[in-house]
């Protein structure tokens, strides 16, 4: 996943009451902090940071979050891990791109080619998310979130059968406001016509790499070449 850095753009796109503190990130791994837009106790939209990997309030061990980076949209209204957050704690995760991996080549050891996916016009968007607050025995707070997923649209289906739910800007208010209980219609694939993807470097497979070069378009052959001074990058698992 990627994080937006243009503070003014983010504030305007998500209707934030106050400009957020952000810095550019290009390679965000699960179980690390991510920016989240939610409704504050004052009733305004605010941007805060939470750990990516939801920990339900009833969990005994916060490590469960590693298994909760995604929430299937088809079951979040009923699944114990997500149903309370779906009713009360919906949020948006701002981004202007995300990654998925497609298998390329034949033979016993095929490679996985990372693809950068976003809007055709490069505009920012909001992933549908859920969040929760977990307290340990000492009363220490851990705020965590997850990304809602759905079936892939026609464009992305050759890459993966799932994709994150992307909420249209006109529907941000409905998704964020728990007073709107009926939002199931928003859990749907983003239209293919609005999106595009292209191959990027396999440097992305190493979370130590976090720079703008990761979003530059490359040919698959070039992206498979590892720098001579670095060991081969591990194969990245799908995030969605």
SSE arrangement:
Elements: H1 7-13, E1 33-39, E2 45-52, E3 70-72, H2 83-88, E4 90-95, E5 98-104, E6 111-119, E7 125-135, E8 141-151, E9 162-164, E10 166-167, H3 172-176, E11 195-199, H4 220-223
Parallel strand pairs: 2-8, 3-8
Antiparallel strand pairs: 1-2, 4-7, 5-6, 6-11, 7-8, 7-10, 8-9
Can you tell me about this structure?
The chain is mainly beta. The protein has a domain at 7-99 and 122-194: hypothetical protein yedk fold (Alpha-Beta Complex). Helix content is 9%, strand content 30%. The protein is built from 4 helices and 11 strands. A hairpin with a 6-residue loop joins strand 5 (98-104) and strand 6. The longest helix has 7 residues, at 7-13.
Strand content: 25-35%
User: What is the count of β-strands?
Assistant: 11
What is the fold-level CATH name, i.e. the topology of the domain at 7-99 and 122-194? hypothetical protein yedk fold
- CATH architecture label name of the domain at 7-99 and 122-194: Alpha-Beta Complex
> What does the average pLDDT come to?
89
CATH superfamily annotation of the domain at 7-99 and 122-194: SOS response associated peptidase-like
How far apart the termini lie comes to 10 Å
Shape: globular
């Amino acid at each position: 996943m990627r994080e937006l850095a243009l503070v003014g753009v983010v504030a305007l796109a998500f209707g934030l009451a106050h400009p957020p503190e952000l810095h550019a990130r290009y390679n965000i791994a699960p179980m690390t902090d991510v920016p989240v837009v939610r409704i504050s106790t004052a009733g305004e939209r605010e941007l805060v940071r939470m750990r990516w990997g939801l920990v339900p309030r009833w969990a005994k061990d916060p490590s469960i979050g590693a298994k909760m980076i995604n929430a299937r949209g088809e079951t979040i209204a009923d699944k114990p891990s997500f149903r309370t957050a779906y009713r009360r704690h919906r949020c948006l995760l701002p981004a202007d791109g995300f990654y998925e991996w497609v298998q390329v080549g034949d033979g016993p050891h095929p490679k996985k080619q990372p693809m950068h996916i976003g809007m055709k016009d490069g505009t920012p968007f909001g992933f549908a998310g859920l969040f929760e607050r977990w307290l340990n025995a000492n009363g220490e707070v851990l705020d965590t979130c997850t990304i809602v997923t759905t079936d892939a649209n026609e464009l992305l289906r050759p890459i993966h059968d799932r994709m994150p739910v992307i909420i249209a800007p006109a529907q941000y208010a409905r998704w964020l406001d728990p007073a709107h209980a009926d939002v199931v219609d928003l859990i749907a694939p983003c239209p293919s016509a609005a999106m595009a993807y292209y191959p990027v470097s396999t440097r992305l497979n190493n979370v130590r790499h976090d720079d703008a070069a990761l979003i530059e378009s490359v040919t698959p052959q070039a992206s498979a070449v590892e720098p001579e001074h670095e060991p081969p990058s591990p194969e990245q698992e799908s995030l969605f």
